[in-house]
Design brief:
Length: 153
Amino acid sequence: MTNSNRLSKLALGLLLAATAPALAQTAPNTSPAPKTQAEQGTGIASAGKVIPVAAYYEGGQEAMYAFIGQELKYPLMAKRNRIQGQCIVSFTLNPDATMSGIKLVKQVGGGTGEEALRVVRLMKFKKPEYPILTSLPITFKMGVTGSNAMEGQ
């Protein structure tokens, strides 16, 4: 290969490498619309996600999160330190409608994890046909109407 041939291939490669970021920046804006309050995880349905185990709760997902909202008390330590976020509790729903293997997968601190575990243990489900391993997100958000646990509780 001659020097001019190598030089032209190198120049072409550099040109392509230099124009790729510019082309990517001129792509149309395809970002999603801003999320609503319910989609951000501050609503009763916790981020608008369908929780499969909610089908085995009397009244469905809305009733399940209404129960959680009623029973959940914002821990004093979390309130003092303005701790907010989502705790995730994992458990197995057995064919006899009991729960086993209840454990905390994620917590934000200040006693929120312990409170989420306490409330999940109070829940009563219908009998599924087979064991279901599931996780349940519980949101702690200060001062937002409709969240699972509010500051004033």
